[in-house]
Amino acid sequence: MCRNDEIKSLLLSIRDVIGSKVKKDISLDQIKDQYKKLLTQYSRLKENYPDHKSKNYIPGLLYNHNCSNFSKISAIYQFSDNALRKLFHYGDESLLEFIPDPLLSEAENSEGDSEFKVNKKIISMNDQSFNLFFGIIDFNDMIIIPVSVSSSYYYSVNRFEHLCRIIKEIYNKTLNELKLPGSIDYFKEISDEVNRFIGNHLKNNRSISAYVYIFQGIEKIFNNSSLLTLTDLSSKLTDTIKNAFGNESRVFTLSLKHYLILTPGNKDPGESKIVKGKRKRIFFEFNDLPVPYESIELDIEKYDSIYNLWEEIFIIDNYLSTGDITL
Description:
Elements (H helix, E strand, L loop, with lengths): L2 H21 L4 H21 L8 H12 L4 E8 L2 E9 L8 H9 L8 E9 L2 E11 L4 E8 L6 H20 L9 H18 L4 E7 L3 H4 L5 H19 L4 E4 L4 E7 L20 E2 L2 E2 L3 E7 L4 H18 L5
Antiparallel strand pairs: 1-2, 1-5, 3-4, 4-5, 6-8, 6-11, 7-8, 9-10
Helix pairs in contact: 1-2, 1-9
């Protein structure tokens, strides 16, 4: 069972237990027993798979690169004060001992170029050869080196360059704040802001309509685009949504392909661009290319519904990804 299936299974199990409790179909002792089983299942998942926030954000990024680019191991090294040290890694640890030597000579001869370049070396382990790809990203006082090892014919250098650009962007932003990149917790900040927005309106007896726009195939359409292009694309999608929904609605960018819009209810329909049940399809385009999407609508009338919102987004996105449903 793959990661997404395991997570979806856990979420569905949690929902079933909560439903049984609400309907009083099971006793308190049975609830406690189910809770222990769910906690064990969650602990196993957390151990097997890195998440994408807090201190595990970077290993999660490396894990995704391994999965999508036929990489045996991905890592990030730092070269400063004539010393090389590993910051993060994910993958086959038996290859780690063969990585540092090729990196040292390149890092020592770096000329301080602000534009990184991808290098390729051959390393061997147990009579098997591997391609070692690494990017030299020079920040003057230190050098950051993203690394990837693969022996696959299907390995994409473009995908690795994309990983390097993301890592460079992360360090550009976080070094200015004197923080490690592992401290980034973007999703938590977004979810906290969403919860505050919903909570404030519910306190004023205003329900919320939540709209989720999912651009499922966006990675394939813009697979070879630069990070700057992807940033422009996300901004264009956000602006299009804002223009369609009006100023009172809030747009939250959850990821490149996920956008959440919250619209307060209990309004005179004439005052809002969005009238329940009469939502118009929006046409999205970027650089004269149409951008296909799916959308869902959820009602939030009480604070507990916030948790259902995140669960529904996750479950529906997974169903869309597997092709089990279309909207």
